[in-house]
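Consider the following assembly input.
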Amino acid sequence: MKLQLYSNNSDNKKINKSLVTKGGAFGITLKKDTDVISPDLLITLPTGVNIQDVNYAYIDSFGYYYFITKKVKTLGGLYHITLDLDELYTFKSEILSNYAYITRSESNFNNYIIDSNVPLLSNVIVSDVNIGGFDKTKTRTYLTVVGADTDAS
Amino acid sequence: MAVVNIPDLSLGSCKVTVNDTPKEGESGRPLTKTIFDSQNCVKAIAIFRMEQFNYNTNKWEYIDGVQITTLTDYPNRGRGGIYDYNKDKLLAEHPTETEFKSMFYKAGAQGSSNTSSTYFRDDARGVGDRVGGYDSEIVIDTNVPIFISRDVPTEMTGLDAATNKMYTIKINVSADYTFDQWSVRAYPTGNRDFNANMLPSAEKPTPILHTFYINGGTLGGNDDYSITEVISEPDDSPIKWLTSEDSKYQVYNGNATHWETKQGAKTVSGTRLGIRSLVLSANGKSELDWAIANPLSINHKNCYVEHAPKYLEKDSGSIFTGNVYRIWFRDDLPDTADEVNNEWAHVTKISGDFENEVRVVYGEAPTRPTPDEQQYDDNHDNQNDNPDSDDDKPDSTQNKDGSLDGILGIGGLTKIYKVAADQMKLFGQALWSQSYENVLKIQDNPIENIISVKKFPFDIAGTTKTISVGNVTFNANGDLLDLGIHKIAFPEVIIGGRYKSFLDYDPYTKIQIVLPYCGTYDLPVNIVMGKKLIVEYFVDLCQGDCMAVIKLDGVPTFKYSGTMGVNVPLTQTDRVNAESKAAMQIGSSIVGGATALATGNVAGVVGSVETAINTGLSTYTSQHTASGTGGLNAADYQNIKIRYYRPVTSEGSNLTNATTFPNKYGHYIGKMCMKYLKIGDLSGFNVVGNIELNGITASNDIKDRLINKLKEGFFI
């Protein structure tokens, strides 16, 4: 079983992470039962690798990538690291090939779908568009009377 | 739009007419009308007219009444109504099966599978079944765009009797002609077996006029017709008139899956050549205003619905030609199977070039009018349910768009004068003279021969004459008018959104219309947004009442009543009480009068400039009706306004920088998507609603963790 250490500069939620390899892969031996999702490892850092530079790891036997969530230096100079499985990067290709019902997206969206998360202020803007109207200062009187029009013109 | 100059129709020639708007009485033109249902919905109604060629007069003439044929098909749920234009009423809003079978059938969002496309075929078995089989027309309302699927061929065929060769003619309609109506009359040659009842004369052969009206689509013909003249279209038109002598023609196969090009012999027993088809689409939107001629076929599958990804055949019964239906699709129906855009009901195919012209309504159905505006036959007894309505017969002076012009004051037995101030004084003096005592009394009091004296804020031109009341002529002049209802039209405005998002619609944006003399009313935002709005006032010069009609995209949609005329008292008693009020309200004495306001269009600020009026208003103010008194209304606002109540986002606080989303909202929150997509096609931040996770070999707990992370949001 080999462990490869990395420096991950990308957001933990990012699928396409940018990893910088730190040292070469080195062998590790499990001395006790180990959780595959959140393994605890006691390791010796490869030469030239600084513990503060590493925050990401890969275990070849599992084929999984991990966040290094905790680092403890033991009195013996070893490092006790706690890992947490990064499913997004581990299964990157499978995720990207899958279809899903996407509720929100930065790249594919419809602004006409109601979004209750959009922050609105409590007031409103009131505005008018004038179409036209009447001028009451200019009037005419109209007289309606009985009798048909009998005039010739 | 351009008008194609064409020769007059005569024997042996074709005629193509391109016009913008059908005109009343124009041969072959459909006449349209919009009415409201009992719940005040703007109801797209059936518009149809039928014409029959009269060989004696050599003219197309209206067919009186409605020809009813037996139908074998019936929609599951009627949407909209079927309107009998000749009777000027809605026959049924939601017809029963029995009713529908006795009415015109409209394919398109109806039918057992809620077809939303109509396919015309001219290969019906019997002559009487064919489109035009009774010398009637398929008429298409150009007020509503008809869009042709690009999958539909645009060729027609004809046979030249002299050469016995087939002509293939393609009709070219450019985008500029989107709303034009084309008619082509093709004369048949050779013998034709048609219904003898339709013949005014037993002398034959006489060419039969067969008129095709399309809007950039396919013309149908049959092998008995010859096309002897073609009209050239500009080279850049997408559909061109061509003549072809290669004896090719096209036949649509029975399964309606494709057109087949054939050569050689043109006729197979029972098979007709040349097929008309129209496919309409609202592209998934909830309202499409359209009109389409009714297909005619007996026992033929001529109605197609698009049930993705292909058309399905649908049987239809015999249908009378020449009927044009206008249908309003509702998307608020309880059963999704009835809704537009349901897989059974959706109208799907529309040319992208025309999509912008489709009226789109998101959300709820139009608001409903007051009950007293009913104009339909609720109990299906072919009688108008509104006793106050005169809908049984079209008003001879009523324009087809609902406007009123030029009717006499009151049945021709009364007169209306516009009277200047000085002449009014003379008239007033004469009322108390000996001569007026001699007036023949219709009522007990001679003064009651004067029906009304009212002031209005406009001027109407008339013919100067001496004022006469009954049998008495006065030494005073007035301008005699030839109308009793005065119409004032105001400029068009476009109801526009600011945010280009859901914020432009209800409940975020509210819109009111401020109507002088009528009141302030809410407009349903989801209906009016994006529409062209026109306000027209109709004023009763005798009664003083007014009605403001709101047209959306040319269709009368809302009506609001009010009182505009200010009553001028006639007696001394009335004068004392009213003069002070009138003076206050109008700014003039009773018998005086200010200079006239020019009538017709517009007074006041014109245009669509939107101006914030009060940023201190924090909430929407409710609507209100105007006073029932013209005088009080005259003291109120005089300008028509569209009043918007728009939301304020955290980013945009005024009309010039209206921004829906905060900065980086899409990146950190994500904008609404609600689609089934491939994750790999996305970028940036995304949130999964649900996923069927395939291709991952892992334990369930790992899969659950993964799905949760996808649902929480992730970056690609």
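Helices of chain B lie at 97-101, 421-430, 525-528, 572-586, 630-634, 665-668, 700-712. Ask yourself how this observation constrains the way the partners meet.
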